[in-house]
Amino acid sequence: MGSFAGGALPPDDVVVTALRAGDETMFAGLLDTWSQGMLRVARSYVSTDHSAEEVVQDTWLAVIDGIGRFEGRSSVKTWVYRILVNTAKKRGVRESRTLPWSAFEYDGAKVTDLGPPPGGWPEPTAAWPTPEGEALASEVRGLIAEALGRLPPRQRIVITLRDVEGCTSDEVCDILDITAANQRVLLHRARMAVRGWLADYYESVKQPE
Q1: 9 C-beta neighbours (distance < 10 Å), count
Q2: In this structure, which long-range contacts are made by residues 92-101, counting pairs with CB atoms below 8 Å and at least 24 apart in sequence?
Q3: How far is CA 6 from CA 3, 33, 72, in A?
Q4: Residue 18 CB partners (closer than 8 Å, separation 6+)
Q5: What are the pLDDT tens digits along the chain (209 aa)?
Q6: End-to-end alpha-carbon separation of the chain, Å?
Q7: Whose CA is closest to 140, among 163, 124, 157?
Q8: What distance separates the 2 farthest-apart alpha carbons in the chain?
Q9: What's the 3-state SS for 62-110?
C-alpha cells in the first residue's frame, strides 16, 4: 500500500473500478498522492490546520460514499477536488472566514464584468522559476509558502491549484465553478504579487560586491 509506482496515477476507469470494489491499495495510493495537496487547498478556506485536516477527512468519506454515483463527466481528481472545495467552503463560512465567489469585488467591479484591457490580454504571467541547488530550492519554497499566505483567499486558491497542484486552467474553472476570465485575472494577480514579493526579498538580502 502507498504511493503509485513512479508517482503516476492509473487511468480514471481503473481508479473508479478499484474504488467501487473497495480496493484498499488504490485508496491508500490516492491518499498518499493527493492528501497533502488537498490540505493546502483546504487551508485556503479555513482558519486552522486542524480544520483543514477535518475537511480532507470529510472529503475522503464523501468520495467513498459517492464513488458509485460518479458519472465520469470530469476527471476523478477534478471531482475529488470539487468535493473538497465545497466542503471547505461550508466549513469556512461557518468560521466566518470566507465570502461567496459572487461577492468578490476587484478594483470596484466584479471579476466577471472585467473584459480584456486595452490592447488585449498580456501574455500569461509565468509561474516562479525553479532555482538550481537543493538549498536554494528549499529556501524559495519557504518564501513562496509565506507569500501565498499573504494573498487574498481567492487568489491564493487559484494559484495553489495551478502552480502548486499542477491543475490546468480548465480543471481550476471546473473545481471552483468560475469562468476562464475569473481564473485568468486571479492567477495573473497572484503570480505578479508572489514574484514581486520574492524580488523584494532578494533585493533586500543582496550583498554588495
Answers
A1: 17
A2: 92/45, 92/46, 92/47, 95/46, 95/47, 95/51, 97/45, 97/46, 97/47, 97/153, 98/45, 98/153, 101/154, 101/176, 101/177, 101/178, 101/182
A3: 8, 11, 25
A4: 10, 25, 26, 27
A5: 455 655 578 999 999 999 999 999 999 999 999 999 999 899 888 888 899 999 999 999 999 999 999 998 899 999 999 999 999 988 888 876 444 544 443 333 333 333 444 454 445 555 655 555 555 556 667 777 788 888 988 899 999 899 888 899 999 999 999 999 999 999 999 999 888 887 877 777 665 55
A6: 53
A7: 163
A8: 64
A9: HHHHHHHHCCCCCCHHHHHHHHHHHHHHHHHHHCCCCCCHHHCEECCEE
**Amino acid (one-letter) located at 128:** W
In the structure grid, which three cell numbers stand for residue 74, read together?
Answer: 470530469
C-alpha cell of residue 136: 536554494
Quickly list H helices, the chain.
12-20, 24-43, 49-66, 76-94, 134-150, 153-159, 169-176, 180-205
Residue 202 CA to residue 209 CA, distance in Å, equals 15
Taking Cα atoms as reference points, which of 85, 79, 70, 71 lies closest to residue 38? 85
